[in-house]
Amino acid sequence: MHHRCDPRAAGVHGREEFARSRAIRYGRGRGGPRARRGDVRAAILALLAERPMHGYEMIKEIEERTEGAWTPSAGSIYPTLQLLEDEELISGQEIEGKRRFTLTEAGAAEQAEKAGERTPWDAVRADAAPEQILLAESMKKLHHAIRQAFTAADQGQQKRVQQLLDETRRKIYAILAEEN
Q1: Which one, of 40, 52, 48, 41, lies nearest residue 94 by Cα?
Q2: Which of 118, 119, 126, 152 is buried most deeply by CB count within 10 Å?
C-alpha cells in the first residue's frame, strides 16, 4: 500500500506534488531562504579573511551575522574546511586543543578578487523575510528553554514541558494545514 505522499500513488502530478512538499519540508521552495551550495565555502573564506577561526566559531559567527536565518551544520563546515585545506586556500593549526584555520596566500588572493561582493550572510539575510528571522530567533530561544528543562526541571516539570511541546507541535501542524 502506498502512502498518500508517495510519488508512486498518483502518477506524474503526484510526483510533482511530492517533490514540492519535500522541498518545503526541508527548507527549500516557499519554505524560506536556504543557503545555496557553495555559500559555506564563500562564508568560510570571507570569515577567515577577517581573522583566524575554528569550525564551531564559524558556525556561530554565520548564525549571528544572519540573525539566525542560516546556521550551517558541522556536516557542511568541516568537510568544506578539509576541501579548502586540500586546495591550499587555508591552513589549519592545532592551538589549545582546537584546530584554527587561516587563509593562505592563495586564499587571500581569491578573497581579494571578491572584494566588494555581497557576503554570503548578507545574501541570506536579504533573501529572508522579517517573519522568518523572527521565527528563527523564537526557535533559538525555545531551544534554550528546553535545554534548561533537561537540567533544571524536576520530573513533574519535565512532564508538563513535554506535554506543552506536544500540544504546540500539533497546533503548528494545524496552522500549516490551513488553506492560504
Answers
A1: 52
A2: 119
Three cell numbers, residue 32? 524560506
pLDDT digits (tens, 9 = 90+) for 141-174: 898 899 999 999 999 999 999 999 999 999 998 8
CA distance 72 to 44: 11
Distance separating alpha carbons of residues 45 and 39, to the nearest angstrom: 10
| Element containing residue 95 per DSSP (H, E) | strand 90-95
> Is residue 57 a contact partner of residue 44, using CB atoms and an 8 Å limit?
no
- Contact indicator for 112, 106 with CB cutoff of 8 Å: no
CATH number of 34-127: 1.10.10.10
C-alpha cell, 60? 556561530
pTM of the model: 0.57
